[in-house]
Amino acid sequence: MKKLIVDEKYNGKNLNRILLDNFEALNLNDLYKALRKKDIKVNGKRVNKNITIYTGDIIEVYILDEVLFANKKIDIDIIYEDENILVVNKPNKIEVVGDNSLTKLLEEKYKINLYPCHRLDRNTTGIILFAKNKEALEILLNKFKKREIEKHYACMVYGIPKENSKILTAYLFKDAKKSFVYISDVPKKGYQKIITQYTVLKKMENNTAILDINLHTGRTHQIRAHLSHIGYPIIGDGKYGIGKINQKFKANTQMLCSYLLKFNFITDSGKLNYLNNKEFKICYNFFSSSQERHIK
User: Fold this and answer.
1) Per-residue burial over 2-15, b = 16 or more CB atoms within 10 Å of its CB, e = otherwise
2) What's the CA gap between 120 and 218, in Å, rounded?
3) CA distances from 105 to 3, 83, 113, 293 (A)
4) Domain with 171 in it: what CATH number?
5) Which of 11, 229, 51, 261 is nearest to 152 (CA)?
6) Hey, what long-range contacts does 238-244 have (CB within 8 A, 24 or more apart)?
7) Domain tally, the chain
8) What pairs with residue 291 in β-bridges?
9) Of the residues 30, 57, 99, 121, which is catalytic?
10) Are both 277 and 170 inside the same structural domain?
11) pTM for the complete prediction?
12) Which of 17, 46, 58, 121 is such that its CA lies 20 to 30 A from the CA of 292?
C-alpha cells in the first residue's frame, strides 16, 4: 500500500490527475481497473470514481509496485565508480531515497549499502554522489559542509536577468505540511537565511535564459523558490513556476539539472585525497534528451 497526503498544489484537483502525476508507470487502463475494484481509498473510504481531492486528504493506493513504478526499467547512467564513491546521473521522476528510489535500485544492482551525500528533487536531473562506505561518507559530508566540494546547477528560466551575475540573499520558511517553501527579503521568525548565486550562461530571443546556479546554502526547494521570488521562474516547475508559461513551452517537468561536481579540497581528506581537483560534468541540453558527460 502507498499513501499520499495531498498538498496545496493539488487542492481541488481530480483524483486521477494526482495518481497519474505521482506514479510514473500508472496508466489510465490500470487506474480505471483499480477504481472498479475499489483498490483506492480516500480518507479511509473506498472510492470507485474520479472524485475531487482537497489539501490534507489522505489517499491510499492498493496497487502492485510494478504497476505503479517504472523505476525497474530505468537504465541508470554510471558516470564514475571506484572502491569509495559512485557518481551517477539521476534521471527524472525518481526520488533519491525511500521506497522505489535511486538508492534502492543501485543497492540492488551492487548488493551493498550506498549512502547519498546530497539530495535532488524528484523532478531534478543530474549528478548525485554516493559513498560506498561510512568512512568515505563522513569525509564527503564534512567537505560539503566546508564548501570544499563545488556543486553547480543549470536551469532554464523565463525572463532574462538584467545583471549577468549576482549573489542573492533572502530568507526561507519551509511548510512541511504543504510541502512548500516561502521566501522573504527580510528576516522573519522561523525563516532561515539562504544565499543563491547565479550566472547567465545564455540568453535566448524567446525571453528565456540558461543560468548557472551555485548554492552557498542548501535548503529545500531553494533554487526553484528563490528564482521564482525574484521574477525568473524555472520553466516546467509545477510548484513555483507559472502554469501558462509551462504550457507555452510544453514543459511538464522542471528544467533544472545538477550538471557539475568538482572536488576542491583545502584540508586533508584522508583516504579520499586522490579525488582532489577531480571534476564531473554533464552538458545538458534542455531542448532535447541528449546528454554528454566529461570527467577530469
Assistant:
1) bebebbeebeeeeb
2) 11
3) 21, 19, 11, 22
4) 3.30.2350.10
5) 261
6) 238/9, 239/9, 239/180, 241/158, 242/158
7) 2
8) 284
9) 121
10) yes
11) 0.75
12) 121
Packing angle between helix 15-22 and helix 28-36, nearest 10 degrees?
A: 130
Domain boundary among 68, 101, 119: 68
The CATH number assigned to the domain holding 18 equals 3.10.290.10
Length of the chain: 296
Phi, psi of 111 (to 5 degrees): 60, 35
CB 275 within 8 A of CB 85: yes
CA count, 13 A, side-chain hemisphere, 17: 11
CB atoms under 10 Å from CB of 252, counted, come to: 12
Q: How far apart are CA 114 and CA 134, in angstroms?
A: 9
pLDDT digits (tens), the chain, 296 positions: 888 888 888 899 999 989 988 887 788 878 888 999 999 999 999 999 999 999 999 999 998 776 776 555 567 889 999 999 999 999 887 889 987 789 988 998 888 999 999 999 888 999 999 999 999 999 999 999 999 999 999 999 999 999 999 999 999 999 988 889 999 999 999 999 999 999 999 999 899 999 999 999 989 999 999 999 999 999 999 899 999 999 999 887 899 999 999 999 999 999 999 999 999 999 877 765 444 444 44
Is 39 among the catalytic positions?
A: no
Copy the grid coordinates of residue 44: 479511509
Please state the φ and ψ torsions of residue 194, each to the nearest 5 degrees. -130, 150
